[in-house]
Write a structure and sequence with these properties.
Elements lengths: L2 H8 L2 E6 L9 E6 H8 L4 H4 L5 H9 L3 H7 L9 E2 L2 E2 L21 H4 L2
Antiparallel strand pairs: 1-2, 3-4
């Protein structure tokens, strides 16, 4: 596949509806490129297929647990973080996984984009 073909295909975004979250009981969706989703389901490690998604969103694709729900399971939402090289020494949260306003959207804009 040529670079031009891959770039054209990369523009094809899709929403993947995820399993029901075991914490809150709600479903969700993750927005990703179709070609990257295809790579993942055919055996590529998810972190290699979709490096642009946060670890929380990749976990949501795998097991359905939303990023905010995941932080509450591990107590990372209540931790008084002590950072060392981008990681909390107490709860092992990566600094890039701190709560972000986009994490509150369980469907990553699915309903707004499909109206």
């Amino acid at each position: 596949m040529s670079y031009k073909e891959e770039v054209t295909i990369k523009l094809d975004m899709m929403y993947v509806k995820t399993k029901k979250c075991i914490v809150c009981g709600r479903n969700g969706a993750v927005k990703c490129y179709r070609i990257d989703y295809d790579k993942w389901v055919t055996g590529t490690y998810i972190q290699d297929a979709m490096p642009y998604l946060s670890a929380g969103r990749r976990e949501q694709l795998i097991n359905g647990v939303h990023p905010n729900c995941s932080r509450s399971i591990y107590g990372q939402d209540k931790c008084e973080h002590v950072w060392e090289d981008g990681w909390c020494e107490k709860c092992e949260l990566q600094i890039t996984e701190l709560h972000h306003k986009d994490d509150d959207d369980l469907y990553m804009g699915y309903y707004e984009d499909t109206k």
